[in-house]
Sequence to fold (170 residues):
Amino acid sequence: MRHRKTTQKFSRNRGQRKAILKSLVRSMLVSERMKTTSRKARAACSKVEQLVNLAKRNDLHARRIAYSFLGDHKLVKKLFDDIALRFKDVKGGCTRMIKLGVRPGDGAELAVLEFTRLKAISKKEKKTKKRKEAVLPEKEAVKQTEDKQAVSKGGLRQGLKKIFKKRRDD
Fold:
């Protein structure tokens, strides 16, 4: 009987399930946003929440537990020093799942899993992006300006871009 068994099986054995969950959580911590099936997103969401709550403790034992799951010192450092600080005053709900619809190939429900408080882009990062754009050769710069003008002409398209633009919570 499966009474009170809440884990998703994903039609895989235990080792494969652990590997999938580990890779989903790792990619979530690296990119802070990922697109996957809604069942896998739900499973990864709970594990990410557990790790963030663990990181809020910020002691040696918590770091060792996080390292035993993640297996990467850089990820553990990012989790404790960057992500946990964003959610220091939040009791729960540090991730959100946005459903996207079904995948055309197999009909699986897709979802985007992301942190509720995304990393704000600093002024230094914005300046370095502007400098990189200024260094581009003339032909590429002309091509980019033509693309920007073509995009600015479309009213509906521009409006949709504003709606679905990546939002950063402060």
Q: What stands out?
A: Residues 14-115 form a domain with the 50s Ribosomal Protein L17; Chain: A, fold (CATH 3.90.1030.10). DSSP finds seven helices and three strands in the chain.
